[in-house]
Amino acid sequence: MFPLNFAETGEEQVIKKVGGSEEVKRHLENLGFTVGGTVTIVNSLCGNIIVKVKESRIAISEEMARKVMV
Fold first, then answer.
1. Choosing a second label site near 46 at 20 to 30 A (CA), which of 4, 6, 55, 59?
2. DSSP string of the chain?
3. Distance CA 49, CA 21 (A)
4. Torsion sign, CA atoms 9, 6, 62, 56
5. How does pLDDT run across 6-50, given as a tens digit for each residue?
6. Are 68 and 3 in contact (CB under 8 A)?
7. Contact 4/39 with Cβ under 8 angstroms?
């Protein structure tokens, strides 16, 4: 298990844990980052990461990506 920002671009990963405060967890869950769901890194630009979650593309900061364990 490792943070999402260490995952390889283009590889589908299964979300195992979402960390952070309750507010952060709720925000990530609303974006589609739920335990058991899949996520794929599409691109990484200047520390920000574009991910594909539930057929949507979302840009998150590196800090937020560190809270998602895959």
1. 55
2. --BGGGSPTT-EEE--EE-S-HHHHHHHHHHT--TT-EEEEEEEETTEEEEEETTEEEEE-HHHHHTEE-
3. 21
4. positive
5. 999 999 999 999 999 999 999 999 999 999 999 999 999 888 999
6. yes
7. yes
